[in-house]
Design brief:
This protein has helices at 3-21, 51-61, 123-126, 269-272, 287-291, and strands at residues 65-70, 74-76, 79-89, 91-92, 96-97, 102-113, 119-121, 127-130, 136-138, 151-153, 158-168, 175-179, 190-198, 213-214, 219-222, 225-235, 248-259, 273-277, 282-283, 308-312, 315-318, 324-329, 338-342. It is mostly beta strands. Strands 1-13-12-8-9 form a 5-stranded mixed sheet. The relative contact order is 0.17.
Length: 344
């Protein structure tokens, strides 16, 4: 491997680590929308051609910026995006608390890759809030139970989750800004979402994957790295001390990674492995649940050339969430690729 490729891969992993830290799993003390289940479920809001359609049309025929409300979809070339709802909280989980006089603003975002190739999207680096006094607030490392999972998106894939900002409680007329000037994936250089206004008809995004979806027992390979999901099981408790939160269950895929390259391979469960619902909500492996497994997947050392490593991971998922996928991201900086296995 050339030094240039090594640098590119390390740089990509470093950026991915920061993005993942921004989306670590947690619980919040306010009610946030969940949106689990099948992407085509009957309770998914659809547009009746009201404000959302009018604003999208106006944005497409206007300048290089689009201004919309909550619930209005912006479509631009390779991606579609919509901010669905917003809520506030002063505390996220047990340890994340807003500073004195501040609060967390939580925005449920959905982004869909409408192109026929993989793209990269980061809500953390490309968004901010702006108030009526022109103060600007960047996304925080605070996370809800459903953080927005950016990164590589497959054709037809939806990423759905919460983006969190910490702002003064007296901040008024908040607007969410997306800047795309450095990214060749959107028709607009900037999208502005008015968080104080909601469309008369809220439009959602449905996932329709444009890649092959595998089944347990199948393998996927890229650049001499092979990933296999052997099987999947569900448990309501693991050991004496590991129990999922109320309303959740453990979904446990049996995973094997084979390194057929001539170099040691580093695999990160945090950066490369997800369980994802049909609506686009993502889950990272549950630390307590995974540590209670007798044959858990171990990532403490590199996988040597010609070596395979197998083990289970436990993911906390809402009971009955269906369809459900396991995703392995090969983290190829030059040519993004993720493999999908349908677990149920």
């Amino acid at each position: 491997m050339s030094s240039e490729k090594q640098f590119s891969r390390r740089r990509f992993v470093a950026l991915g680590t920061l993005a993942a830290l921004a989306g670590c799993s947690g619980e919040d003390d306010t009610s946030t929308p969940s949106g689990d289940g099948d992407a085509n479920a009957s309770n998914t809001p659809t547009s009746s051609g009201g404000d959302a359609t009018d604003s999208a049309t106006e944005a497409e025929t206007g300048s290089q910026s689009a201004a919309v409300k909550l619930g209005e979809v912006v479509e631009g070339g390779n991606i579609s995006m919509v901010a669905l709802e917003t809520s506030t909280a002063t505390k996220l989980g047990e340890f994340q608390e807003a500073g004195s006089g501040n609060e967390f603003v939580i925005i449920r975002l959905a982004v869909k890759n409408t192109s026929d190739s993989f793209i990269d999207f980061s809500s953390f680096w490309q968004t901010r809030l702006k108030d009526s006094q022109n103060h600007v607030y960047d996304a925080t490392f605070g996370a809800t139970a459903h953080p927005f999972d950016g990164g590589s998106l497959a054709p037809g894939e939806v990423s759905r989750g919460d983006v969190v900002y910490e702002v003064p409680k007296n901040a008024e007329n908040l607007k969410m800004q997306f800047d795309f000037t450095a990214f060749d994936l959107f028709d607009f250089e900037r999208v502005v979402i008015n968080l104080g206004q909601t469309a008369g008809s809220v439009t959602d995004l449905s996932q329709d994957l444009g890649v092959d979806v595998l089944s347990p027992g199948d393998s996927a390979s890229k650049n001499d790295v092979k990933a296999t999901v052997h099987s999947v099981r569900t448990e309501s408790q693991l050991g004496e001390f590991s129990q999922p939160d109320e309303g959740n269950e453990y979904v446990i895929p049996d995973i094997e990674i084979t390194n057929n390259t001539d170099e040691a391979l580093t695999v990160s469960t945090l950066l490369q492995m997800r369980v994802k619902t049909g609506t686009g909500l993502s889950y990272t492996a549950d630390i307590m649940g995974s540590s209670s497994l007798d044959r858990g997947y171990k990532e403490g050392s590199d996988i040597a050339p010609g070596e395979s490593r197998r083990g289970e991971l436990a993911f906390q998922v809402e009971k009955g969430a269906k369809p459900l996928y396991f995703i392995f991201d090969f983290l190829d900086f030059a040519d993004s690729y993720k493999a999908f296995w349908k677990l149920r």
